[in-house]
Design goal:
The chain has 360 residues and is mainly alpha-helical. It is 63% helix and 4% strand. It folds into 2 domains: 289 residues, Rhopdopsin 7-helix transmembrane proteins; 54 residues, no CATH class. Keywords: Membrane, Transmembrane, Transmembrane helix.
Length: 360
Amino acid sequence: MALGISEAQLLGLFLASVFWGMFLITFVQCVRCLLWDSKGVFKPVSTINWPMVVVAVLLAILSTFDVALGLMHNIEAFIFYTGPGGSAARFTGLTDWVNILKTCNVVFGKLISDGVLVYRCWVVYNRRWLVVAFPVLLWLGYLGLAIFVIYLEASANNPRVLLTGPGLSDLTPSITSGWTLSLVNNILATGLIVYRIWRVDKESSVYAIQSDSSRSRAFFSRSSHRTRLQIVTRVIIESGFLYTAIALITFITFLTGSNSFYATSDAELQILSIAFNLIIIRISTRPEENYSAQTSRPHRPSFPLRTFTSVMDGTSPGPDELISKRTLEVMVTNEENVDVDYHPSRSRTRTQGRDSQMSY
């Protein structure tokens, strides 16, 4: 039995409400990690990562507004609308302002999420524009197509048609192209970030105070010690997969013309907001507390994304071995850092732990 538009809207409201509850929990924890340190002390204003705070608040507003719009739409369709066709006729109003606002919500949420991902990629690569040139072009392409889709939806000749229904020859190709650009951008930027962190972790093994055998087994094993960069990599992969999976499911339901597209699209905005919060929360937690307790071996400090200084022959490591302090501020928050002075002739390594006020 095919899913009707009324059932799809009710299911979408239910899924959006469930995931909004999950989002609310992660949002509170995310704000705590951004504004307070691990000891519960409010961070100095100058050390707070305000761009991430603004993004978290914007996603919270969009997610909450989307649930409110869905609730109001269902109340109008099932209670207040008394015209012919019942609730289905109310939901098929493509040019209805509620449907247009819901489309804007999803579009702006994806633009913010993809933009933050490209920004993180740019910072991880030490602000090299050449690396993120293609992701930026994909983001700009999605922005242009999104504006065009909203315009076509608002000026459609047939206001009584479903977004997934026939007769949308001008709208369907634009939505398909925009969704494809967003998916490719998400996968590409995530892959670039993961590759960069993996390279830095591999290069820093020369300076790390731990055995190579433990590093090779650590990434997917909970019984062995993992470096902080391996923890960051795993967090980014898992959070990226969470959003990519729901985006791909929504895209497939749209291509097949199923009314379940309305349900999955309502959940998509909530899940992309949850994925953003989870990255900050999980990277903000101290790796020593989460992972070192799971191994019987004594904890030995590992190296985060930080500038390594080599005084051999008066030269410094190459660009792939260096990560700026600003990169660390973007990638790691509230964790113990290690300063290293390495000299091959003395074979001496000095470590000094201290707490930092950094945010992702």
